[in-house]
UniProtKB/TrEMBL annotation:
One Pfam family it belongs to: Plug
UniProtKB keywords: Cell outer membrane, Membrane, Receptor, Signal, TonB box, Transmembrane, Transmembrane beta strand, Transport
Signal peptide: 1-31
Ranges for domain TonB-dependent receptor-like beta-barrel: 431-950
Alphabetized PROSITE patterns for the sequence: TONB_DEPENDENT_REC_2, TONB_DEPENDENT_REC_3
Residue span(s) of domain TonB-dependent receptor plug: 62-175
Compartment list: Cell outer membrane
Organism: Caulobacter segnis
Entries under PANTHER family matching the protein: PLUG DOMAIN-CONTAINING PROTEIN (PTHR40980), TONB-DEPENDENT RECEPTOR-LIKE BETA-BARREL DOMAIN-CONTAINING PROTEIN (PTHR40980:SF3)
Entry's family note: Belongs to the TonB-dependent receptor family.
Organism domain of life: Bacteria
Record-given protein name: TonB-dependent receptor
Membrane topology: Multi-pass membrane protein
Amino acid sequence: MASSEDFRLRARLLCGAAASISIMSAGAASAQQAAPPASDDTVEAVVVTGFRNSLAQALNVKRSSAAAVDAIYAEDMAKFPDLNLSESIQRIPGVAISRDAGEGRQISVRGLGAQFTRVRINGMEALTTSGGTDASGGTNRSRSFDFNVFASDLFNRITVQKTASAETEEGSLGATVDLNTAHPFDKRGFNFAVSGKMGYNDQAEKASPRVAALISNTWRDDTIGALFSVAYSKRDLLDEGTSTVRWQTGTATSPGFRSVKGVTCATNAAACAEANGAVHPRIPRFDWYRNKQDRLGMTGSLQWQPDDKTTVSFDALYAQFKGQRNEDFLETFTPQTAGACTASSPASCGINQVDVIDYTIATPRSNFPVMTKATLNNVDLKTEQRFDKLKTEFRQFTLTGEHELTDKLKVKGVLGFSKSTFSNPVQNTVQWDQYNVQGYSWDYSGGDAYPVIKYGTGDTTNADAWTLAEIRMVQGFVDNSYKTAQFDVAYDFNDNLKVKGGLSYKAYGTDSTAFARSNGTTANINPISSAELRAIPRSSYAQTIDFSSLSLPAGNVTSWITPDLQKAIATLHMDDVNYGKMVTTTPGTVWTSPFGNSCFTAGCGIYNLGREPSLGSNYSIDEWDTTGYVQGDFKFDVGGVPVRGDLGVRYVQTRQKALGYGVVPSTVSGVNYQTISATTASRSYTDVLPAMNVVVEPTEDLLLRFGAAKVMSRPNLGSLTPGVNISTGSNKTVTSGNPFLDPYRAKTADAAIEWYFQPGALLSFAYFYKDISTFVQSYTSPLSTFDKNPFGLPDSAAVAACGSTPGCSPSLPVWQFSTSVNTPGGPLKGFEINYQQPFTFLPAPFDKFGFLGNYTHVTSNVTYLSSTGVVAAVGPLTNLSKNSYNATLYFENKKISSRVSAAYRSKYLTQIPGRNGSDVEGTKATLNFDASLTYTLNKNLAFTFEAVNLTNEVQDQYYDSSQLVSFYHETGREFFAGFRYTF
């Protein structure tokens, strides 16, 4: 029976303090193709019993790696305070994370965003997607991997490879991340571990459990083994704050305000020019989100080793991440809504009915006036609740076989299948409006945090003072699947040269489906005109939102009334698909749809769901990648100085087929035909990708690294869809993908120096450079009238899409046009400094302390083009943080193991140029502090305490380089207490 010390190598991910561990053993290299090759001097993996010993072992293995890699190995289950897998990976140098609902969701490596990072699980590429808030990207329909689907407890090794080698599969500009689950042969014999924790969030004031367990055994003289592990966590979170959904000028919704300080703008435009020319918040509001999440993961592994030359492994992984989210808002859409106020217009006709009573202008940057304070009459208030059900399921099966044909010749094969399914079967929203409120005001002069918003004559606490205005019902589904077949062969010519090669085939498919309320056309039919529904007392399906947990400036409300969707479903007949059934008639227009919609023939209810209003999110893409590589691993001396490394080339053929939908308008004999049709496009391209890594060891403790390669990354999925699509929700957009985009391509160079100045210590410096010669950019035009669209669409297409939606007309300057184009790219460069040291040189008890820290600096200069090919801006890559660091101070003796960690990410841009007239949009810097403490009672039992987000760091997104608030939310601190038992 294995001891508890023996088992600790597997038990859980070493995440809280693995900021600078770089691990790659020969065993890892043979089990994981993405791992760089190890030389014959590789230090064999040994069992370690504590954090300090595991760090020392990690450094020994790092010295044997040819490529630049950083990794994390499992140490003690439940010892560190990470909420999911991405928060574990952020401890690695150069890795930064983006968060959703207070926990990490995606990563960037060396300044390159999530779409440039490939992720493999147990040797094969995989993709998991989930759904988030709109401010965090919403439903993931891209190639970006959502790490929040997985608990850290499921994996025993994570490797981040930052330089390319020929044997490493293509597809990354930034890094290749390998996730590895445990195997029974990792530690033979019987092993068992279990942990349990109870968490508490001080903002939500809710408790949440987390449990994990692993059991494994080997039989028949350790030739057969089996392992099973499970991890489960539950989380109840309150996510509160404010948002504006960007800013814009009054003239953006021409003609702007109706009057300013008593002067009618239609008769004296000059008197209104200052107010109309300044940017104001588009949707000033307060937000209240309640998130409930369940995360379940299971792994299983069977291994057979009939002799010392053959190993067969079968691995299975299942993960389920599901949740429910309520989003409640108290807001106004008036400042961003256009409409001509006429006798026949609806009660709400937008900014064009607003009288500006008073205002204050600030100029945070030249020629960029901002209306920081304003008092307005005739403002329409809105209160809404949105309810989402979300679920991601991931399944993967991998069969791996390795065999030594001779002492020199080895072969390996991998067969694998993975599938990720995301479903958002319920996304319902009910909105109430309160019209023509007098004396409404906002005050953003206090900075980019919480404003003061007063609602004048509006009644925010009386449900029946509101009017039912809109009901949205949306469904969304995204499926991703991979099928992989791979064969590798390696031949050792002698102790100094190994030649390897391989072939692989990968079939990838993604399907995205979206539904919205539909009458068979693409029109937005969410606004409610039914007198019967409007007459239902709002108090019969109302609730009160308590906002008092936030420290808001004086003058703000601390509670408001909002719809209760659970009550509204029955009250408003939302579960009756035949409610309000009628045949759709569109005078002078004939619609044709491929989706079997019966609204034009048999009729449909007002809650009928169809794909028609969400054509841009309905597509499928199939991709087939055929690759081959050859690589030589070498080792020799030059003047007595050891030199080793790898040199090789990879050939890649990519074939793609994309299907999307669009509306084809035509006019025959005075009849306007709107035909929804599927469009398919196919293309293929090839890449030849040479790669080299060289390691020179001039002294015993000094190591020099050099690397160079050509790399490529395929375009994001949404950029490849054919068809032109019109959306007429709160934003009026026309979008088109480009199925003929070239991939991102770059030439890379890396150099590093590593000094192992004492046992278990490292000081290193790494420089990296990437010349991105082919870039893919999504361009969004300024607001304009529909006839300015670059797709050749007639105004009749906008008329059909607008339907009866207020403020939606081809003649209004409310339209934005988006497409994807290849651009020249530009250079990216930066450096990493990495330091770790156990303080063994200090007197007791300080000799039990140690430190790990790293700092990364990245800059880039990328050219951004307009859809017509004109240079629109030159600036950094989106999602690139110029500076980031991680630091951990630890203490460890036989009884106590404790850590305090900090993770910093500087601000980064998310949109260049920015929308609605801004130069940029971005996210502000974050600094997160976490801590953990483990007390070991005996060799089997330990008690743990953890704290996450100790300073209650906010998520702060901004509009324009003047950093006007766009989204400002806080989620509170989380504390966990629990135990860990091993046997």
